[in-house]
Amino acid sequence: MMRSTRGLNPCQEAERQIRMGKDKDNLRWEHINTSKGRGVFAKSHIFKGAFILQYRGILRKGYSGTNDYSYHFRHGGSHYCIDASSEDGSMGRLVNDDPKPNGKMKKMKVDGVPQLCIFAVKDIMEGQEITYDYGGVDLPWRSSPGQEMAKGLHLGYEVSVWFSKNYSVTSQLGMT
Ligand SMILES: C[S@@+](CC[C@H](N)C(=O)[O-])C[C@H]1O[C@@H](n2cnc3c(N)ncnc32)[C@H](O)[C@@H]1O
């Protein structure tokens, strides 16, 4: 069931939050463990379809390198990247990957500028971690136990993951 906040639909709420430049107060982050690091959690029930949060960072046009916190996408025939590597206190950059996620990253346009936001694809209970699918690639944490966590993992449109066994993978993140 989709609910709106303050009479706004989810896209309007996303736009409002983008303009305010801050996360909603129904989210918190915490350190989960040493391999996963931090994650974002719901402080109250989030309904399916609702806007959750913006993936905030510096918007760059063109391919300008990648890091753990960069999200690469195409818009209007061009390559863009949101570089969220700065520890700016925003929570979009702290949302972890799950192949069966409760959130989905979507592209929006606000005042002609592309923005990335995560929306709920299912009801999310209070206390649950917010996740989205980084993409259908062999991300190291999805591989078999015992495999060493790759250092310098890149989250991006073109992802190169260097496994401990010197195995390189390139893939793409989809965007709808
Ligand atoms: C955009 S950051 C997410 C926030 C990160 N956990 C942190 O503490 O800053 C992406 C990084 O988080 C980690 N990560 C994301 N999803 C994960 C998962 N399901 N299991 C383990 N590590 C994960 C990986 O190190 C990845 O490079």
UniProtKB/TrEMBL annotation:
Protein's name according to its UniProt entry: SET domain-containing protein
Taxonomic source organism: Pogonophryne albipinna
A GO BP entry: regulation of DNA damage response, signal transduction by p53 class mediator
GO molecular function: histone H4K20 methyltransferase activity
Pfam families the record matches: SET (PF00856)
InterPro entries: KMT5A (IPR051760), SET_dom (IPR001214), SET_dom_sf (IPR046341)
Any one GO cellular component localisation term in the record: nucleus
Superkingdom assignment: Eukaryota
Stretches assigned to the SET domain: 27-135
PANTHER family: N-LYSINE METHYLTRANSFERASE KMT5A
